[in-house]
Model the fold of this input.
Amino acid sequence: MASPPKIAIIGAGPAGLTLARLLHVSEVKVDLTLYELDASPTSRPGQGGTLDLDTDTGLAALRKCGLWDSFSKCARYDGEEKTIADKNSTVLVHIRGRDKAGPLNRPEIDRQRLKEILLESLPEECVRWGRHLREVTEDGMLRFDGRVEMEGPFDLIVGADGAWSKVRARLNEIKPAYSGVSGYETEITEPAKTCPHVDKMVGRGSYFGSSDRKLLNAQRMGNDSIKVRSWYLCPEGEAKETLDKYGKKGTLEKILERYADWAPEITEFFRQGDLDKLMHWTLYELPVGYKWKHQKGFTLIGDAASLSTPFSGEGVNKAMKDSLELAELIEKSQDPNDDLTLDQAVLLHEQLMFPRSEKIQATTMINKQKMFGPDGPVGFMTAMLKTKASGSPSILIKMLGTAPVVAAVYGYFWIRQQVGWAVRRLWRRT
Done:
């Protein structure tokens, strides 16, 4: 009997952890090792915000992982609440959250908690912490910083190592490019106590304010804190340089100057944030339709395979779907009754993933362009309408994406914006 394939997964984010769990509970044996840059599970707390998981992707992967009960204890269906407004605090759309599960629901969970659920389901010896990957060799060996001996060879190395993937560098020379968008993040630790007006405005989910090619959003976390983020167009490196030059207090002043003509109730999000937790973000992306020529022994999943900006909310769902498909194909390749080889399984995974990734990347790119375009939230919402309509099997829903309907929707929201602007001006005069 042939020995089980030796597989290395690089990166213990949602993609890598999901793949590791799926292979761990599969009916076939694999010799699996997961390598992670972080020194320990707790060395970098508070990673990321909250994620909404979709039925056919993220939630399907969790069910296959056998972790539905663990997830259900943390799932927040009321976190689906969303408010979209313009800079005058004119609410254009308000979607209420739900109080229970449903077939079309997208429950929220903190990224950190999702990682914990997945990690707790793996044997401790499966994950090797503090491994800074320096090089992936052609013969399937791994070289790590600070370690003389290399590890391997592996039959398959899966890059789940994010934006600056070292495994991707083995496949081709294409690197992420600056998306044009940067910003800042802070946190309101106890909004119910310190700013109940902000707490009520954000609700149980998310609040998005968009105008003037800028975005300011607030997102409810599982511990009832609120993550606040500011996004805007600027040259690469400007956000970091501002923070380095002016410090956190001075940077906050610069942020508020950028939103000086916005409704004060929206900019209050940043005023109420914990200054010590202020940090910068610079967003990068791979080209829409990025792919690579298949090479035996290597592949990518998640952001390593199709890095995009976060403006479609599909990153983690796409990553977990990648893991689900790849695990199923690896399992199939180890079935003695099936002729599929491991290399053929990986090739098929890539062939399935590329068109799915391209579709998500294209949607994300459109969302980014509309969100930071001249017509702000209205253009963004009509773009979402067309995307939803085009992807629906229903003829009635597809009709919502036709030019007359889109024009009518655009006009409706544009009028609401103008009324909101007029009311705001009148209110300021009085």
Summary: The chain is about 40% helix and 20% strand. The chain has a mean pLDDT of 91. The radius of gyration is 23 Å. Residues 342-371 form the longest helix (30 residues).
